[in-house]
Request: fold
Amino acid sequence: MIDYDLWRQRLKSEMGSQLKHYGLASDIKTVLKNAVKTTPALFVIPKDENNKSQNSTGTYRDIVTGGIDVLIIVSDYSDALGAKAGQSLKAIRDGIHTSLRGWTPPDCADVVNYRGGKRVSMAKGLLLWADTYESLYQKG
Reply:
């Protein structure tokens, strides 16, 4: 199983004070239910895992694709359309991408790859975006 806190720590060490909060959460709904007090923030959220069993010289190995959603929360109340929040989001996403893509976590067997992103919510100057990153690990 992937140690999701390692991914959070990696982001925090690479991005530093660019964000005010680095957290872990079980899912996006949990983050949305709790009041977002500090922005910009990110939460590392586990993704589903997929198994690709392999038979190698008579022994089976489980090669698992696992990963995270990085939920980014930015706010800017200076315009009703959220354009400023979108500008902040780009800089944060670029930093996250640089921090994770190509990194090999100690508990993984391959580098981290970017899978895609999506807008989760935009309301009242608060923009939530999730980017998905994944890697492979061997389950024992």
Q: What stands out?
A: Residues 4-139 form a domain with the STM4215-like fold (CATH 3.30.2000.10). The chain has one domain: 4-139. Strands lie at 21-24, 41-46, 50-56, 59-75, 113-123, 126-139. The first helix runs from residue 4 to 15.
